[in-house]
Specification:
Elements lengths: L11 E7 L5 H12 L4 E3 L8 E8 L6 H5 L3 E9 L1 E3 L8 E4 L6 H7 L5 E5 L8 E2 L2 E2 H6 L9 E15 L2 E8 L5 H11 L4 E11 L2 E2 L4 E2 H6 L19 E3 L2 H8 L4 E2 L3 H7 L7 E6 L2 E9 L2 E7 L5
Parallel strand pairs: 1-14, 3-12, 15-17
Antiparallel strand pairs: 1-3, 2-3, 4-11, 4-12, 5-6, 7-10, 8-9, 10-11, 12-13, 16-19, 17-18, 18-19
């Protein structure tokens, strides 16, 4: 019996403007089907209520997901004052209320406390693992949770709008692992109120921003016209690149190290520090992630973008 075809070998990144009401996994599944891609995955889960930038890795780009996941992200969210909810967003049930509606001046005064390295307790309805189980599964079963605070980095938080007394809008630039729902909850508490996320949109992940994102509805209408697909190495723009020959690329893709012993070869490494990570390139495409070990380049992760 003939083997079932599992899709086309597409390598690269397609950036989706995720619609609300879908999980990130559902979006990946649909994109993979629409593009007939053999392999796909996403970098950074978005809550179902959230919209915005969802980078989807295709083929060998899935091997660079951990690298993109560590990059800086940007969000916009709307905070609803006066109600704290089980999920820390509008989909949960109300657990506490407050009549306090802070002024703009009061909000501005506490924002420095939420900038830099801060301690943050993840929402109970999150993917954090507790004794091998997801917190959201335990929370749905009403198991009491006492999640451990974790250190996250907020590079910038700014109050951008006050549509009315009950709402405030913020933009945030942050590092990996930062929950906007926790930020909204804790910000409200710090102001003597209660609060939750009423709306959430991701504006940027690493090199990908909203301007580069294609709405899922538009992708559905493209038919056989492929969407813009960014090269695998797009997410590796923050690490040094090393150009290699075809023979060197073949060795690296076979898992072998290459020795750069001649002066001309060593010059290719330039100012790359010993032990530093490299993006190895051949013919303008990524071959592997590697590390410098003296005059030797050792492959760490092979990117099958070159035949």
């Amino acid at each position: 019996m003939a083997r079932r075809r599992r899709g086309q070998p597409i390598d690269g990144w397609v950036v989706i403007d995720k619609p609300g009401g879908m999980t990130s996994t559902q979006v990946v599944t649909e994109v993979r089907r629409l593009l007939d891609a053999a392999k796909a995955g996403h970098a950074g889960t978005l809550d179902p209520i959230a919209t915005g930038v969802l980078p989807i890795a295709l083929g060998s780009a899935t091997k660079t997901i951990p690298h993109l996941s560590e990059r800086r992200k940007a969000y916009w969210f709307q905070l609803r004052w006066g109600e704290e909810r089980t999920t820390d967003d509008r989909e949960g049930t109300v657990t506490a209320t407050s009549p306090v509606r802070p002024s703009d001046e009061q909000i501005q005064a506490v924002l420095p406390r939420f900038t830099g390295e801060i301690q943050q307790i993840p929402p109970n309805f999150s993917a954090v693992k507790v004794d091998g189980e997801r917190a959201y599964d335990l929370a749905r079963n009403q198991v009491p949770l006492d999640l451990t605070p974790r250190t996250v980095t907020v590079h910038r938080i700014a109050l951008t709008a006050r549509p009315d007394a009950d709402h405030a809008e913020f933009e945030v630039e942050c590092g990996t692992g930062t929950y906007m729902r926790s930020l909204a909850r804790d910000l409200a508490r710090a102001l003597g109120s209660a609060g939750h996320v009423a709306a959430l949109r991701r504006l940027r992940v690493g090199p990908f921003d909203a301007a580069a994102a294609i709405p899922l509805d538009k992708l559905r209408t493209l038919g056989h016209s492929p969407p813009p697909i960014a090269p695998v190495e797009t997410v590796l723009d923050d690490i040094p690149a090393l150009a290699v020959t075809g023979d060197e690329a073949s060795r690296l893709r076979s898992g072998q190290s290459i020795a750069l012993l001649r002066r001309a070869d060593i010059d290719r490494l330039g100012a790359v520090a010993d032990g530093a990570e490299l993006c190895v390139m051949a013919d303008g495409r990524a071959v592997a992630l590697a590390r410098r070990d003296g005059a030797t380049v050792r492959p760490v992760r092979i990117l099958n973008a070159i035949s």
